[in-house]
Amino acid sequence: MAFFPRSTEKQLDGCAVVGIMDTSAKRFNGDDITKAIAVMRDRSNGLGGGFAAYGIYPQHADLYAFHMIYLNTDKRYDVEEYLKKKFYIASSEKIPTRKTKQIVDSPILWRYFLAVENKPAGITEEDYIVETVMEINDKLEGVFVASSGKNMGVFKGVGYPEDLSVFYKLEEYEAYIWTSHGRFPTNTGGWWGGAHPFNILDWSVVHNGEISSYGINQRYLEAYGYKCTLMTDTEVVAYTMDLLMRKHQMPLEAACAVIAAPLWEQIDRMDEKEKDLYTKLRQTYASLLLNGPFSFIITNKDQMIGITDRIRLRPVIGARKGNRTFISTEEAAVRELEPDLDEIWIPRGGEPIVAQLKSARRRAI
Amino acid sequence: MAIKVSNSNKTINSKGLHFSELNQKIRSAVKSGADKLKLVNVNGQRYIGTGIRKEMHFDVYGTAGADLGAFMDGPNITVHGNAQDAVGNTMNSGLITVDGHAGDVVGIAMRGGCVYIKGEVGYRAGIHMKEYEDQKPVLVIGGAAHDFLGEYMAGGVLIVLNYHPKPSPCLANYIGTGMHGGAIYLRGKVEQYQLGKEVSVVKITENDKKMLNKHLKAFAKTFKLDYNGIANASFTKLMPLSHRPYGQLYAY
Amino acid sequence: MISYIPEQFKVNFSDKCIKCLACVKQCSFGALSYDEEDNTIYSTDKNCVACHRCVTLCPTKAISITKNPLAYRHNNYWKPETVENIYKQAETGGILLTGSGNDQEWPSYFDRLLFDASQVTNPSIDPIREPMELRTYLGEKPSELKVTRKDGKLVISTKYKPQVKLETPIMFGAMSLGAVSLNLHRGLARASKEAGTLWNTGEGGLHEELYEFGDNTTVQVASGRYGVNHRYLNAGRVVEIKIGQGAKPGIGGHLPGEKINEDISRTRMIPKGTDALSPAPHHDIYSIEDLAQLVYALKEATHYKKLVSVKIAAVHNVAAIASGIARAGADIVTIDGFRGGTGATPTIIRNHIGIPIELAIAAVDDRLRREGIRNTVSLVASGGIRNSADVAKAIALGADAVYIGTAALLSVGCTLCQKCYTGKCAWGITTTNPELVKRLNPEIAYRRLYNLLRGWSIEIKEMIGAMGLNAIESLRGNRLKLRGVGLSDTELEILGVKPAGR
């Protein structure tokens, strides 16, 4: 079946992630991010890659942009009927692609710009979107929502990321945040739904590593209505951030202290107030500790956050040049774009690298 | 840096080369007699210096990729820039100097030779360094190191200066966890909680001072740093409590 | 008529015997006697329970105990034990008694579950050198924490219920004073303090001298309410309501008057020499809302500073019952599986009632999650935990922590002779006879109990490190780390575990 992983063999792990954000919201096209991820080609194996881009649909900025992957072509009309019932579809079109030798067997890729008009009472617009995405991913075989945020989109698939960039014509899009992922799939083979970034609403995640705690993270999130259907560990990160920061309204610093919690012996050395805070965060959200080797780049419309596991089993570096912040698995990816940086550093395990949109400074971090 | 022009000198432009292409070029150059190679526009290529068994010199311009000098046996590599992860992986002999910072697991499992990093390093620097007969590796870090410094260390000398780009206190935790050989010298002080349970602070001897001075002088000279600025501070020496720290771990 | 019930064991002496008579003195079951005239030690084999006290203490290692090979005609269905039990009951008209846990050949699900380990795609973590966290907090957690930033600092406004910190997720299960000796309680209390965990008084009260270990104590309230008063309830960190016990679900307790000596009398607050009867149910709990009434009575009595645990036996409908307990306000639900031990129980009950703890924990954890109330209680598994792998498996299935009882007794000398109900324990564990109690040195008991916790804790760290985890909470309920071998689809579904190979 087309929508199942091509290979179920386990393979070596060694993904690459990179993100670029212009904190003054100045938009730039997909060339830079493509160049950066291509430097780390040896960390992927051509079985998955992708990009998230923020600010690409200014003409539809207030509409939810659904990027859909139809592995099962018959389902498109069903899905459209379903969407019509739930939303006003302001516009819909095939996602433009170009024919290339490298990207083969591409599924049908479509995008919809949706307005929420008559949602049921007692549920927020965002929850309504989350519910819809969960339902499509869970119930409709071979159909996946690649992204569902406003003024943003995820472009992903099976192939090397730089080849996918050509396929998706990313040079034609302009965004103020770009993230990218080159995949060396391990636990699931290469398939279009399983490539990174993972997205829900305007949260996107690219991930290097493996989340060994996935089993319990997933069970915990299920209790809050998140269904993990994409056969990979990374989607739990997007849902975790959505739960903590949107639904539970938690500042970023607190959310980071959940997913990469300080060690108990560090907490024990804190002063009483801090000890109380971090103890309660860990006690309450013990099941959301992300355990195992990871480095993520997590983005929303205002922020780009890089973070590693608390004992830093995967590498990451942060760098700045002017208004641009870079987060990358390897320094080389950043040097490719900016040989002369203002600042470059190696963060500690669990210590986030944060880039914040200047116009959004007031949003609590 | 002025490069003398001679038959044995060669420059390789690494721009856009895959590591396998670059290393192939290096091997060809070495085979044709080059003993001084200048690699320019290096950006992330792995394994530079690997598989070269010869006393020769590399000047690397750019950002050296992972596994710089892995299994290296003889060469002398100067990186004019930063290095990524696993510098000097299981290196046997030679010298690597990095005029910048380096990523995680610097000096992993090195058995001989010398690695100087001017700036900071990431996690687990000096992990499982070991010595054997007359081979005794030396790793000197000019900046600060992150957690698990000297983890499992079984031999050699690990010196952390916490000095460049700016003097800082020692911030690492779990220093020397699992250490069972060799010695760690830290410029400045550490708190007990920062140490792994297998190490303890011991008094610095006159011999230690001589050895330290030798490396500090060479280090300062290599990177044009102020020797007095570095040396003018107290050092903390860490030694393993036992060569067999886990005698009490097993039932029978 | 005479029915012949053969001796189960034979005591054999070799010529290494020096007639020091240590064995005779040590045998508390009256199996050995010395005839001065013959200068011979005689064995009354029918009294031997194979407790190995004599074997262990014989200075010349002259004694061995063997199974008595009585030649019944082979019968796979009517086994010797079945036949002999019928003879015994025909003679007495009574019920058969036993101690310890179910010893029958029921399948063990622990033994059909295997763990995962990291290979390449994620690194296994070296637990000896890198941080490996077993710390566990028992108690209700909120479903959401309100965190805001005030003057640059993070502040929590959510009210938080009391929590109990365990440095290792292994606690000592309830064993009451009277059923076990004071020296055992002394050992349990000190070992718990040293290891940062809890021991449990059982239903027989807390001895005066052990009040100082209150921070590491769970005090139990059972249907007999022995020793329960204001001071007792406030002495520990947790108050446990005992509804049932895995070895004898639905059965009360009976501590015979002859075991009620001075110490027991004072601690249980009943006169010396009277029987201590624990009714089968709590007669103030005939329904779930009555349980809520008792939970809140205890919370009021302890000013909401103590956690309230409710312990039930694992029975068929355990998931629904646990859900009811969670909704009745308990902070901890303790489930005791059918392998759980006891000081005394009718054999027929022990061997045939209840369900395996593995299935019970899986079902309860699932149910609580489905109902969205898993965070409101901690889940403690007990009954038949034999080693650190069982502990880890119980946690992976969904438990927060476990109780061990039989394993703790084994660590201080128990040989599972199953004669706890006789009060003659030759090892000084399940007895109140002062001569026998002396045999259990509390200092040594404490060290051995502590060693057991230490050894198991390190092993758990090794296992979770191998799985690529460095905190116990990432294993808790993480059933993806388990695979089943030789289990039916239905069993796999209940356990929430994939078959090995998938």
Tell me about this structure.
The complex is a heterotrimer of chains A (365), B (252) and C (502). Chain A is of the alpha+beta class. Chain A has 10 helices and 18 strands. A 7-stranded antiparallel sheet of chain A has the order 8-3-10-1-16-15-17, covered by helices on one side. Chain B is α/β, with parallel strands linked by helices. Chain B has a domain at 100-240: Pectate Lyase C-like (3 Solenoid), CATH 2.160.20.60. Chain B has 3 helices and 11 strands, in the order βαβββββββββααβ. The model of chain C has no long low-confidence stretch (mean pLDDT 94). Chain C has helices at 22-26, 53-57, 80-92, 182-195, 230-233, 262-268, 288-301, 318-327, 347-352, 357-370, 388-397, 406-411, 434-437, 442-466, 489-495; strands at residues 9-13, 32-35, 40-43, 63-67, 97-98, 113-115, 136-138, 147-150, 153-156, 164-166, 170-172, 199-200, 217-221, 238-242, 253-255, 276-278, 307-313, 332-336, 345-346, 378-382, 401-404, 482-484, 498-499. Chain C folds into 2 domains: 9-94, Alpha-Beta Plaits; 171-477, Aldolase class I (TIM Barrel, Alpha-Beta Barrel). Chain C contains 15 helices and 23 strands. At the A-C interface, α5 and α9 of A face β8 and β9 of C.
What keywords describe this structure?
heterotrimer, B: 252 residues, alpha/beta, Pectate Lyase C-like, 14% helix, 26% strand, disordered N terminus, C: 502 residues, Alpha-Beta Plaits, TIM Barrel, 2 domains, 8-stranded parallel β-sheet, 3-stranded mixed β-sheet, 23 strands, 29% helix
In short:
Chain A is of the alpha+beta class and about 375 residues long.
Return Rg of chain A in Å.
19 Å
* Strands of chain B, total number: 11
* CATH topology annotation of the domain at 100-240 in chain B: Pectate Lyase C-like
CATH class of chain A: Alpha Beta
Distance between the first and last residues' Cα of chain B: 61 Å
Domain unit count of chain A: 1
Secondary structural class of chain A? alpha+beta
- Count every helix of chain A, treating DSSP H or I runs of 4 or more residues as helices: 10
Instruction: Give the biggest beta sheet of chain A.
Output: 7 strands, antiparallel
What's the CATH architecture name of chain A?
A: 4-Layer Sandwich
Q: What is the strand content of chain B?
A: 25-35%
Give the strand content of chain A.
Answer: 25-35%
- Which structural class do the helices and strands of chain B define? alpha/beta
Largest interface: A-C, 46 and 44 residues
Helix and strand pattern of chain A: EEHEEHEEHEEHEEEEHHHHHEEEEHEE
What order do the helices and strands of chain B follow?
EHEEEEEEEEEHHE
The Rg value of chain B, from CA coordinates, equals 18 Å
